[in-house]
Specification:
This protein is mostly beta strands. The protein is built from 4 helices and 21 strands. The protein folds into 4 domains: 74 residues, no CATH class; 119 residues, Jelly Rolls (Sandwich), CATH 2.60.120; 103 residues, Jelly Rolls (Sandwich), CATH 2.60.120; 95 residues, Type 1 dockerin domain (Orthogonal Bundle). The chain has a 5-stranded mixed sheet, with no helix packed on it. A 4-stranded antiparallel sheet has the order 6-13-8-11, with no helix packed on it. A 4-stranded antiparallel sheet has the order 14-21-16-19, with no helix packed on it. The N terminus is likely disordered.
Length: 422
């Protein structure tokens, strides 16, 4: 485990349900591999039989408290199942560089005076495909971006022109693949060092590390791209040879929705968009048909075609021909990657206590949903709570019992159909 990742140990005589502490090093390392925080702290009082909160904290020093049972949370969120959750980071000149996580967009940032420079950092891993979008917020300001690798070398540049004489709104997008792991730096300034103005930045990993909302066959979702540099993600399970249809419509305004389909290999296999016009805009929509060429998890990426206009949209996914039935799921597979491993325990704890991921995979995404109880209730007590994450960890690493609905022969790999979790 990296030296800057610390987690408290649990006293061996603590109550059984409180044995989350023995998994602290594994969970901490997993959060780091997922682009998470540098420190995870597990703390609670002796005898506590349920978690209070889960939290990410930076720079926390190891503290071997005797009875440690639950994560300490910084943020608790509750959201709907089929929508994207937006996360933001507020700029402050006194706290630069500002740390960003994948999925963040900035607020309140500005280059002022014209000779000012703003800096941001993020943790990246070798092989991450990332998208960095930026824009000015009016005026003739020309935002310029430098992407600096962990060794201090500039590896990519991007920017746009805000024009003159009052200026125009402009935006840019940088897509690149990281080659080394470590802390990357974003340097933002005015390209000519002669104009001041506001700016925004959003950084995404494609596909995202945080589980995206599930869009099931024959269903739709309504959401919005806001700010203009935003990108929304959905995912669905597809079977080779199945013909699908995806329809997208903007919800007024000049917003120009663009959709990209990412296959299980991470390749963009189809793209479509429509023009919402200008000067108040018009309604527009488009439809894409595709025969799937592989079985696995597909992602849908939605953004504004120019990353310079925001607006609402509705998207629908239809199965036309082929394997349109409810897919089988592996009991306990919280992050829906068709594999039962440590990341599923992290997913359970994250939804319960962090709001990251934002929702469980079934129904309305909440712990009390019948589908989520069927899929994730490892300790069958009619609810999804910390004991289920701990039960999964015990099964994976200590020879504990499998999920009560799991296959007796291959509980890690055999899926079953959950009618209440399509």
């Amino acid at each position: 485990m990296p030296n800057n990742c610390r987690a408290a140990a649990l006293h061996e005589n603590a109550p059984p349900v409180a044995h989350a502490g023995r998994w602290a090093p594994l969970l901490c390392a997993q959060f780091l591999r997922s682009g998470g925080p540098e420190s995870v702290v597990l703390s609670a009082e002796s005898g506590v039989n349920s978690a209070e909160k889960v939290g990410y904290m930076r720079g926390v020093v190891y503290s071997p408290l005797p009875y440690v049972a639950a994560f300490v949370a910084v943020t608790l969120l509750s959201t709907g199942h089929a929508q994207n959750v937006e996360s933001s980071a507020a700029c402050s000149e006194g706290t630069e560089p500002l740390m960003l996580n994948y999925g963040d967009h900035t607020t309140g940032c500005a280059i002022s005076p014209a000779v000012d420079v703003d800096t941001f950092t993020f943790e990246g891993s070798a092989g991450d495909n990332i998208r960095i979008a930026g824009d000015n917020t009016g005026g003739p300001f020309d935002p310029g971006l430098e992407l600096v690798d962990p060794g201090g070398s500039t590896i990519a540049n991007a920017g746009c022109s805000g024009g003159c004489c009052g200026g125009v709104h402009c935006s840019f997008v940088l897509n690149t693949t990281l080659t080394v792991s470590g802390t990357y730096t974003l340097i933002l300034s005015d390209s000519g060092t002669d104009e001041a103005g506001g700016l925004g930045i959003q950084i995404d990993r494609i596909p995202p590390l945080i589980p995206a909302p599930v869009l099931n066959y024959n269903s739709s979702s309504t959401d919005a791209i806001d700010p203009a540099i935003d990108m929304d993600f959905y995912k669905f399970q597809g079977v080779e040879g199945t013909r699908i249809r995806i329809s997208v419509q903007n919800r007024g305004g000049p917003f120009d929705p663009r959709l990209r389909i990412l296959d299980p290999r991470g390749l963009i296999i189809e793209e479509g968009s429509c023009d919402g016009g200008c000067c108040g805009g018009v309604d527009c929509g488009f439809t894409m048909d595709k025969i799937l060429e592989a079985t696995g998890t597909y992602y849908l990426l939605i953004s504004d075609a120019g990353s310079d206009e925001s607006g609402g949209y509705v998207i629908s996914l239809q199965c036309l021909v082929g394997r349109c039935e409810i897919p089988a799921r592996i009991p306990g597979d919280c992050n829906e990657d068709n594999t039962l491993d440590l990341s599923d325990a992290v997913c359970i704890f994250g939804v319960l206590f962090l709001g990251t991921p934002s929702a469980f995979p079934c129904g309305n995404g909440l712990p009390g949903d019948a589908g989520n109880i069927s899929l994730l209730d490892w300790q069958p007590d009619g609810r999804v709570d910390i004991s289920d994450g701990i039960g999964l960890l015990d099964f994976l690493f200590l020879g504990g019992p499998p999920h009560p609905l799991a296959s007796s022969s291959e509980p890690r790999t055999t899926g079953i159909v959950f009618p209440n979790c399509p």
